[in-house]
Amino acid sequence: MKLRMLLTSTAFAALFSFGLVLGGDASAEDPKPCVAATLPKVKAACEKGGQAEVKKLMKAVVDKAKAAGKEMKCLSCHKDLKAFEQTPNAMDDLKPLL
């Protein structure tokens, strides 16, 4: 079941990425700036490609957590997905997965 979910999410991510390449994502030239990047890996992703790159990193973190048997989603660490305000447990949950 976990392998099936991993394969499904990987296939979806690949199709999504392929669509962005073909579609010519305008934000690739001028990435949205990050809201709050404090951890080194998050900062590096932010500098590399703004919010889009950090989103890829966070998606990998969620996949890693799920592969380890932990239930995690975006709202596990963020109060909302517009301002990306963090929950009190966000840093403690994120650090071991980076």
Mean pLDDT: 80
Helix-strand makeup class? mainly alpha
- The total of helices stands at 4
Spell out the helices and strands N to C: HHHH
Description:
By secondary structure, the protein is mostly helical. It has one domain (2-97). The chain has helices spanning 2-23, 40-67, 74-77, 90-94. The longest helix has 28 residues, at 40-67. It is globular and about 35 Å long.
Using brief descriptors, characterize the structure shown:
98 residues; mainly alpha
Question: Which secondary structure elements does this structure contain, and how are they paired or packed?
Answer:
Layout: H1 2-23, H2 40-67, H3 74-77, H4 90-94
Gist?
By secondary structure, the chain is mostly helical. The protein has four helices and no strands. The protein has helices spanning 2-23, 40-67, 74-77, 90-94.
